[in-house]
Amino acid sequence: MNTELRSKTRTTADWQAADAAHFLHPFTDFQSLAKKGSRIITKAENIYLTDSDGQRILDAMSGLWCVNVGYGQQALIDAATRQLKELPFYNAFFQTATPPAIELAELLAEVTPPQFKHVFFTGSGSEGNDTIVRMVRRYWDIQGQPGRSVIISRRNGYHGSTMAGASLGGMSAMHAQGGLPIPGIEHIDQPYWVEHGQHRPAPSRLKAGDPPRGAGDEGDLGAGISREQFGLVAARWLEEKILAVGVERVAAFIGEPIQGAGGVIIPPATYWPEIQRICDKYGILLVSDEVITGFGRTGRWFGCETFGARPDLMTFAKGVTSGYIPLGGVMVGERVAEALIERGGEFEHGYTYSGHPVACAVALANIKLIRELGLVERVHDDVGPYLAEGFESLKAHPLVGDAESCGLMGAVLLVKDKDGLKPFDESVGIGMVCRGHCFREGLIMRAVGNRMIIAPPLVITRAQIDEMMALIRRCLDLTLADARREGWL
Ligand SMILES: *Cc1c(COP(=O)(O)O)cnc(C)c1O
């Protein structure tokens, strides 16, 4: 049968059966999904998806943190079509290049912070972080310090799913499968104030020179240290780790400006400047994984600009093409670029699709559109602050222990008791209960433990934020009703 005909005549149940029979989804319990059946998404426009039953869903997750310009942008579709006709593929291995890859490299140098003039293209964020591991180790080789090979990252960070990406990441469930992390990766704890700060870190974690935990901070939600003080404490875990490993063995530190998959953990404002200071002090490379926070998500072009860091390397993917086609890469700052170019010889690394012309053409159209629509400024001055107001108002809800946002990333912490932010029993799976209501009500909101998170397309309007907030409130109410009925409170 003609496949086109076959797609049109299939029902949701047909799709689900074929899906369960053949398609192994990422990060999925195959058997339980097969029982339940996938939700089949058939089309999308602007910020709305349509499923195979015709239900309209507000996509508050931008697909998977990537559809920054929203769905259905003709400029991206045209760019891909044009490039597919002109030159669908040529590689960059054989001392060759294609116009879209060159122009994109040029444009990226323009929109990224001034230390970045060079880019290494990959096919995804995970490949970008694999490239980071090879590149920082190569850098130290060239510097004549091959012993500097250890990369420090954070528990509950996410850096992708390849061997190196998953190793850099700090997801214990991922490490438990496949013998990870690979050697030479060390983890420190995450800058999550709700977990550490408000319960007062154990005294052993606080070192001489840490700011005092004064009485004046007690009013800030819990009974522990203030967010700002905690930010410094958490950053100094890096210094402790550097000293424990030995400065002469440490190559780099990598972190997401805001941890995305970890639950939209927004660090205190004091955190990144202190991380920067520590990296400078010991001369180690700072890597900002901007796969989510890049291309306007936080209200600046890159998250490091929002948080006051000056990384040596940046990983990007997702929003670079608004997810229309896969592309990733690494921005290489002058310090590393100089060594690689002037003294490195051949860098033995690359991918078939490094600088794929169609992907680069789409990225070019995407970045130009972000500029034309003024999306970065819009997030910074208009819809970002408007979302923050909406999130602030959620704090009054009985289930909400905390609600915070930065640009167009936000998280709502669901608690059993606002006093002391007491969590629900884990067996309740409160996030998944809430997420179930969201699905049924036509809202894509993701659950990470007890944190409900959003990252809507940057084209979202104020009216659409109102619509989204109304849906979020409704789903919180439905979840609260469940909690009361089932006696979870
Ligand atoms: C998604 C993500 C990655 C991995 O990107 P893929 O394209 O899925 O390989 C890496 N880092 C961060 C911060 C991400 O959110």
CATH level 1 class label of the largest domain: Alpha Beta
Please tally the β strands and state the result: 15
Could you name the CATH topology of the largest domain? Aspartate Aminotransferase, domain 2
Radius of gyration (Å): 23 Å
Write the layout of secondary structure elements.
Blueprint: H1 3-9, H2 12-22, H3 30-36, E1 41-45, E2 48-51, E3 56-59, H4 62-65, H5 74-86, H6 99-111, E4 116-122, H7 125-142, E5 150-154, H8 163-168, H9 172-175, E6 185-188, H10 227-245, E7 250-255, H11 271-282, E8 285-289, H12 303-307, E9 313-316, E10 328-333, H13 334-343, H14 357-372, H15 375-394, E11 400-406, E12 409-414, H16 430-441, E13 443-444, E14 446-448, E15 451-454, H17 462-486
Parallel strand pairs: 3-13, 5-6, 5-7, 7-8, 8-9
Antiparallel strand pairs: 1-2, 2-3, 4-10, 9-10, 11-12, 12-15, 14-15
This protein binds pyridoxal-5'-phosphate (PLP).
Residues 65, 124-126, 129, 158-160, 256, 260-261, 289, 291-292, 317, 328 line the site of pyridoxal-5'-phosphate.
